[in-house]
Write a structure and sequence with these properties.
Layout: E1 2-5, E2 12-13, H1 15-28, H2 33-36, H3 45-52, H4 58-71, E3 77-78, H5 82-88, E4 94-97, H6 102-111, E5 119-121, H7 134-142, E6 150-154, H8 157-165, E7 169-173, E8 187-189, H9 195-200
Parallel strand pairs: 1-4, 1-6, 4-5, 6-7, 7-8
Antiparallel strand pairs: 2-3
Helix pairs in contact: 1-4, 3-4, 4-6
Length: about 200
C-alpha cells in the first residue's frame, strides 16, 4: 500500500500563516479578504490569483505570496500524530502531494520537524493542480504504484476531488473542513493519531 498525503492541514497546521499571507496580499492589491478567503484552501496560489484577480500575472503574484509564506512560519507545527505516522510508514511508499511550491513545502516540513520525502509533488511539478487528478497521479508514478493501490490523506474539498478523480481511496482529515464538505471519503479522522493502522485496514 502506498500513502500519498497532502501537506497543509494534514501533516502541518499552517492555517494562520496561510491566512496572514493572503490578508497581506489582499490588502496590498486592494482586495477584500472576505472575497479571497473562500478560494485559498487546497489550491495552488496561481489558481487563487487567477480566480480573484483576473488579468494579473498569476505566476508573479503567486511567487510573492509563497515567498511571504516561506519566511513567515510562526505557528506552523506538525498535526498531532504526524511524526508517528511518518516514522511508521516506509519512506519508499510515501509521497507528499501539495499545492504549495517546493520552496514553501520544504520550509514548512523542516520548520515542523518533519522529514522531506524523496517523493515530493509540488505545484511546480504539474501543469494542472488540484482539483485535477494530475498531482496525485504524479505521486503514484513517483512511487511506481497503481492508483488503485494508493490511499490519500486530504483535508480540502479540492484535494479530495483530485484524489477520487485519480482513482484512489481517501481518508479525510477534519482539520479545516466539516465532514459534509468532504463527501466520498472511505474514512474520516480528526488528526493523524493511530491513522497508520486505519489505513492498513482499508
Amino acid at each position: 500500500m502506498r500513502l500519498l498525503t497532502d501537506l497543509d492541514g494534514v501533516l502541518v497546521d499552517s492555517g494562520r500563516a496561510v491566512e496572514r499571507a493572503y490578508r497581506w496580499w489582499a490588502a496590498d492589491r486592494g482586495l477584500d479578504f472576505a472575497e479571497v478567503e473562500p478560494a485559498i484552501h487546497g489550491r495552488p496560489s496561481r489558481q487563487v490569483v487567477a480566480r480573484v484577480l483576473p488579468g494579473a500575472d498569476a505566476a508573479a503574484e503567486a511567487r510573492r505570496i509563497e515567498v511571504f509564506q516561506a519566511t513567515d512560519l510562526d505557528g506552523v507545527r506538525a498535526i498531532p500524530g504526524a511524526h508517528e505516522l511518518l516514522a511508521a510508514w516506509p519512506a519508499d511508499c510515501l509521497a507528499v502531494v501539495t499545492s504549495a511550491s517546493v520552496l514553501l513545502a520544504t520550509a514548512r516540513l523542516t520548520h515542523a520537524g518533519l522529514p522531506v520525502p524523496a517523493a515530493l509533488i509540488t505545484e511546480d511539478r504539474v501543469t494542472n493542480g488540484k482539483p485535477a487528478p494530475d498531482p496525485y497521479l504524479a505521486g503514484a508514478a513517483a512511487l511506481g504504484a497503481d492508483p488503485a493501490d494508493c490511499v490519500v490523506l486530504e483535508d480540502a474539498p479540492a484535494g479530495l476531488r483530485a484524489a477520487l478523480a485519480a482513482g484512489m481511496r481517501v481518508v479525510a482529515v477534519l482539520t479545516t473542513h466539516r465532514r459534509e464538505a468532504l463527501p466520498g471519503a472511505s474514512a474520516y479522522v480528526d488528526d493523524l493519531r493511530g491513522v497508520a493502522d486505519l489505513i492498513r485496514g482499508l
